[in-house]
Amino acid sequence: MAAVQDAPAVPLPRPVIGEAAWRLGRTIGLPLAFAIFSVVAWELVCRLTKISPELLPPPSAVWEVLVGNPAILIEQAIPTTIELIASFGIAAAVGVLLAIAITSSEAVREALYPNIVMFQVIPKIALAPLFIVWLGVGGRSIITVGVFIAFFPVVVSTATGLVSAKPDVLQLCRSLTASEWQVFRLARFPYAMPYLFAGMKVGVTMAMIGVVVGEFITAQAGLGYIIMFASSAGETATVLAAIVVLCAIGLVLYGVVGLGELAVARWYGGQLPTSGVI
Amino acid sequence: MTVELPVGGRTLATPSRLMPTGTRALATLRQLRPVILPLATAGAGLVLWQCVCTLFHIPQVILPTPTEIAVELWRILPVLLREAVPTTLDSLAAFAFATVLGVALAIAITYSPLIRDTFYPNLVAFQLVPKVALAPLFVVWLGITSESRIAFSTFTCFFPVVISSVVGFSSADPSTLRLCRSLTASDWQSFLLVRFPFALPAIFNGMKIAITLAVIGVIIGEFISAKAGLGYYILYAGSHMDTAAIFALFVLCAMGVLLFGAVALAERQVRNRFGRR
Lengths: 278, 277
Prior knowledge:
Number of strands of chain A: 0
Helix content of chain B: over 70%
Order of helices and strands of chain A: HHHHHHHHHH
Shape of chain A: flat
CATH architecture of the largest domain in chain A: Orthogonal Bundle
Helix content of chain A: over 70%
Oligomer: heterodimer
Strand content of chain B: under 5%
Shape of chain B: flat
């Protein structure tokens, strides 16, 4: 990055404001334009080639389902949202606590951490049918599947964060005779924040996968159930509408985590201590 | 989701020639601690599992003991290995497609600002879409064939490769790139000699995520459409209240770890070839 400094220091004369506005328009406008273009192209292809709507319904058909029959989608979205929030909440809480326990001592960390990393690699989704054997058909087993999948990224990421505080800072704490708790609260925990939130963001997405797959294979209700049901009935427009709702729920939850990150960053004074690391 | 051990501040005591034998043995033991401790913990977990099952008389249908599992596993291993073949092949195919397509798209994004501005934000947004929900649609489009599972799995594991590779390609040291230009290296040369080696760690990070997601994608595909494969076997066994599914799980774990290990090994080879960074 030192290379930036030996660039020619003479600024070229140019219309600064127009340039900035144009760049902004480009960074927002181009992707939006592409997204809109894709939707329009999709609609046109569907209409012109007369693809059967069972195979690929045009966006307008999806929109019709969304607007024309919102009651069913909302009704099915409620159990999915509750399961999602429950499984993410449990996974985040248990994950952070376990990460704190793991990093509390070297021996515990060396004993548990490699096993947990190993679990990261295993395709845990395959356990979903077993949870049904253990917990029966219904919300409880779906939430457990979600927790089980969302939990590991939170633990691994938070544990990495908790041991990533700068050695200088820790040394300073020790020289100032800070207690273990003070070191944790004032140095290690704030340093772990970016990692914690990175883990939670992965966790939200994972919880979503867990809940949807859980609903695929067990549920009597929920968006996953609607998707399975509608796809086997050939109502592809309903499938896509349910996916749109699912995306909206996912984006809101992801946004909540992002807002939480902003709030925590502000609480710790402007910016996170290692912001820019991730 | 990098899988790396956190490095503690502790440095290992190196066994010195001047030490008495007992101390040296102790030092060796301490060096082996990162290997022994996790294994011991895993072993203790298994013993605890066995004890709990025997003491509380948990029926085998709910949770078999590790020894019962080991015996059963040995008995049905041939069946499981047969089921594992389609799952492994589909996962590998999906992973290969995703890697090739992902890196190619990442190169296009790196070299063309127009493509970057157009595609990249949409790709990042797509990361958040629960792609699993699209699995039934792939069945509608491509049928209950192996191709449909490979396509779905490619679709799920494609995005981490692209995003990781884009980050990698743009992480090349600017002063090195400038040096290439001053030495009149062609675009191709500076790509091959600078950008690509610099991007390797990030590309492999993306590939490591992708191999895990590829297996998950194939398993989900097998849950909803297959007539063979480990995912099908697990669902089938589960619906018959047959916890033999657990055995399939062990094979699956081994498969996941092996595939991940293969990618990690490839990473080491390639990075040695291009010089460690």
